[in-house]
Give the backbone structure.
Amino acid sequence: MSVPTGIGKLDRARITALLRGTQYTVSVNEAAKILQLPNAQVAKLLARWSDKGWFARIKRGLYVAIPLESATSDISLEDPFIIAEKIYGPCYIGGWSAAEYWGLTEQIFRTVVVFTVQKQYNQHPDIKGTKFLLSKIPETFLFGLKSIWRGQIKVFISDPSRLIIDILNIPKLGGGIRSAADIFVSYLNSEYKDIKLLAEYAEKFNNGAIYKRLGFLLEKFVPEEKELMALCNDKLSSGNAKLDPQIECNHLITRWRLWVPENWKK
């Protein structure tokens, strides 16, 4: 932790130029172009300014400016969605983070879920006190997304229907199956409900477990959705899946080929 310290006139002019010429984050490459200096020299400048408390390093070669009103450089990220786009792009915000954005859950989650095409060795990074949960996807899975603007920066987020398929594919990214089911019910009762689009996205995943979970949840919560349930039944693959791989599922619902917890069998 450090308190921003004084800088000279030249440094101040350079920092001002960087803040005017960049959006939220400052990379070494961006700074080198703006300041018309070699990358190596700019890297040293940014490191020095970071030591003095004017910038905070969020990854190698990438910094955010410290707000002038801050008494310390130990800051939290102002907008984690932008940081996700800058570090993990091509990517999108999904799971429970998308559910919060679309108003489909009242739960408060402290971790930001990011689906990225980049391979990450650390799936649970903590950047300046903001925790991320990363999930690797192939580039062909960058569909069903909406672009949103955070200031002047475009960020991608799963649309509500894609959100549902994602958390049926990996229930833990919806906060576990109970939370994922609540999000699903909220979706069905919302303006975002689109059964045709839901079926279209499920088809693209080609994952039998999604149909088993979806069919079971439809039967349990909205049995009137007979057309989609029939589609799920037609798409049932061989073998049995778990309602939630993260918890004990010891009761088999044979018609859906799905193992569920004891308290979910009725």
The chain has a mean pLDDT of 88.
